[in-house]
Structures are given as structure tokens and as C-alpha cells.
Design a protein that fits this description.
Length: 161
Amino acid sequence: MAAVSIAEKIYSLSGIVEKTNQWKKEGKKIIFTNGVFDLLHRGHIFSLTQAAKEGDVLVIGLNSDDSVKRLKGDSRPINDQDARALLLAALTMVDAVVVFEEDTPLKLITSILPDTLVKGGDYTVDEIAGAKEVIANGGKVVINPILDGFSTTAIIRAISQ
């Protein structure tokens, strides 16, 4: 199999729908997770590695710069969406990255309907965007623990002191 370039792992919404449909036809289990991934750190790597173990291909929904500003304030993101997408696509456990503009990835999730939706943290299934749609389609939702002591907010705080 030919190696896939890093940039080829970054998709538009229509591109990821086409690619996930292809993977489904090949019998691959699609895993989806999402986030800001502003400053990649050990906690992100742990979370993405755990998510990737749930199936065959890992798709990451990445908050656009505008959605990050709405969610986290005008000082964020530190890295723009193109840089964040490239860094994620460079990770070996990541098969695809797609930027979404909305505050939640609901539209993206309902467009690709992954086999497993993975979220890190102390969420309940009811709080996770797309959970009920994935479950209704026969999929499952997995909530992975967060690796304590690692957060982008803490890194930004340490840098600014």
C-alpha cells in the first residue's frame, strides 16, 4: 500500500463523507472524536491512542478558528486551524481530519455516522453531541478518561507566567 501524505489526510465535509462511505464498504469500523487540539500535548496523544483502539480508522472533527473563539474566547486558538489540522494529520493513529465551523460536530457526525463516537472527559452520553444519532444507527459511545495534569489551558497559563 502506498504511503498517504499528511495533507491527504485532511478532508472537507463532502470529502470525508465520500471517504467514510468507502471505508464502510471495505468493512472498516469508523471511530470519531473531536476537539480543539490547540497545543498538542501528552494528554491529547493518550486520548487519541485510546480512541484509535476502538476500531479501524480514526476520524477527528477539528473546531474551526471561529468556533474556538466562540467557545474559548478571543485569545484562542493559539495555532490556526490549518496548523492544528496538519499536526493532527501527522499523527500515525489519525486517519482523517475534518474542520467543522459549528460549535458542536453534530452536523459532521450525522453526515458520516461513525460506528463509535469517542469523547474524553467527564461527560455523560446525554451531553455528547451526536451520541443519540450514533446509537440510533447501531453505533456506540465511549467516554475515555482524561490524563490528569495535562491541558492546553495549563500550558498557556505556565507560558504566560
